[in-house]
């Protein structure tokens, strides 16, 4: 697992290593925080279909599932 900067998470680009429905590239479009500035919700959007999904932001640190940036 790699480390993620929560300050740079919004609008960051991600590649899913095991794409589903031809959705491979994603963008973090929303981050919700609580009163203590802890992330409580993260929404990613597929670039191809514009479909949005909620994800646990820490899952993006799993290098077996996600890669930072957009790659082929």
TrEMBL record:
Top-rank taxon: Bacteria
Any one GO MF annotation of this record: small GTPase binding
Annotated ranges, domain Importin N-terminal: 1-49
Coiled-coil stretches noted in the UniProt entry, renumbered to this chain: none
Gene Ontology terms: biological process: intracellular protein transport
InterPro entries: CHP02450_Tryp, Importin-beta_N
Protein name: Importin N-terminal domain-containing protein
């Amino acid at each position: 697992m790699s480390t993620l900067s929560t300050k740079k998470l919004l609008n960051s680009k991600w590649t899913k290593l095991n794409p589903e429905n031809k959705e491979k590239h994603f963008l973090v479009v929303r981050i919700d925080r609580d009163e203590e500035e802890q992330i409580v919700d993260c929404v990613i959007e597929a670039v191809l279909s514009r479909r949005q999904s909620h994800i646990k932001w820490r899952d993006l640190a799993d290098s077996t599932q996600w890669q930072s940036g957009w790659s082929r």
